[in-house]
Amino acid sequence: MQEGGAQGGRPLVVLRGVEKRYAAGTLAVRGVDLGIGRGDFLSLLGPSGCGKSTLLRMIAGLTAPSAGAIDWPSAPHDAKGVAEPRLGFVFQEPTLMPWATALANAALPLKLEGVARSEREARAAEALARVGLGGFERAYPRALSGGMRMRVSIARALVTRPDILLMDEPFAALDEITRFRLNNDLLEIWQETGFTVVFVTHSVFESVYLSRRIAVMAARPGRIETEIAVPAAYPRGEAFRTSAEYAALCRTVSLALGKAIEGRHAA
Amino acid sequence: MTLAPGEAPTPLPVRRVLGVAAEAWPRILMPVLIGALSLGAWEWAVRANEIPPYVLPSPSVIWATLLRDWPSLSVSLWVTLQITFAALAVAAAAGLALAILFAQSKWVELSLFPYAVVLQVTPIVAIAPLIIIWVEDIRLALLICAWIVAFFPILSNTTLGLNSVDHNLVDLFRLYRASRLQTLLHLRLPAAMPYFLAGLRISGGLALIGAIVAEFVAGTGGRASGLAYRILEAGYQLQIPRMFAALFLICIAGIAIFLALSLIQHLALRRWHESAMRREG
Fold this sequence. Notes:
- Chain A is 37% helix and 22% strand.
- By secondary structure, chain A is an alpha/beta fold.
- Chain A has a six-stranded mixed β-sheet with strand order 5-6-7-3-8-9, with helices on both faces.
- In chain A, helix 6 crosses helix 8.
- Chain A is globular.
- Chain B has a domain at 76-271: MetI-like fold (Orthogonal Bundle), CATH 1.10.3720.
- Chain B is built from ten helices and two strands.
- Chain B has a two-stranded antiparallel ribbon.
- In chain B, a hairpin with a 2-residue loop joins strand 1 and strand 2.
- The two termini of chain B are 35 Å apart.
- The mean pLDDT of chain B is 89.
- The interface between A and B is medium-sized, with 39 and 30 residues.
């Protein structure tokens, strides 16, 4: 494992004073300063309405910030100076094209990049195998279970070998057993590959289990209240999930989240 | 990463009788049974009450007339079908093209859609005489009438389909910097496919109705005229069984068009769309 975190090495992405105000005047996100290093696993944890998904969409470039800047120091930039980082995005829903096979779904980003058919199919098959779906290349989404569809979605995000994987509550709609399994599988791939992950969740347990760092957010207006490091070593497995260390970390994060929510009531 | 046992769903086996799914048989047999009973009752009522054929012919007389007049009726059927299919093809192409144009710009849609509605709500019987006067070539006039009737369901359905794309998928395409053309070809058109096909299925029947109505208005004589003219002609001559035989052919043609378009819809969507899926339980 390489050393991650904003403190180690050149950060992959830097957010400075990022704000999002909607046309109606609602302030969804206020003054976010955040550095995300290469190989980091950062969770954005908070109650609904705290702007964590909005923040993720701004990092993805799907929503423009109303104020502040998001810089990608090491990413290539286009002619107009707009950064073109290699992103992978996983939505809360699998968001697959129902008319396309698992292979064609996973190959979509390469198709849009203009990669030749034989190469993109080989790479998509590789990505599917990596998420445990070898042999399901020709299956249509409706023939797959919820967990398998999410695996296809992850394969699609990984197929371009992105620098950063942005995940918006990807496992929230799955049952707990499937969620635990996908948590483990995600950590395994992350450790093998060393990309960066920003993971939006409202689950304290999930954020502690997965991340190296947790940004605890509060609502109205959405902001990062505090950052907590999770010092536990990787690989983390079922033994970690049942350890006293995990329970203690969950307690710390839970208290911080409680404080963040309380703070809103006090204000 | 490996898949856990039991994570993959297993498809249910389908029991088949004579190549058709066992559950589908009642859907085929019941309407056939009802049809046979009704025809039997009709035949019996005509014979028992000795109703003359110029008031109500019995099914057997209609059938005999159909066989006897098949040479002339089949020519007319072919004429009507040609106009119907030509109108449907033009309606599909124009409806699809216009829907794509609408999807490119909200302004185009706002400006033109009301006129498509005007075209749709104007009764074809009322404007058919005008079209027949304005357009020299009678077959072209008939085609225009049938097209006007068939065009709207394809346009409105496809427009709806092109606009009902999953927002997250649109975001995904943006994320990968897809061009407008790529988004249209790989996302909007496939997503609109079920809507387009549903529109086509409605328009198939409407194209036939449009062609028949226009033929009624035009009332062309001669050998190469459609089924509607055969009905008019038989009416003047009080050949009621022949009228029924022509009507029967129109019904059969309408059903055949509907079934053919349903089959196309099923074949195109069976792998992925809910509408084409086998219902369970």
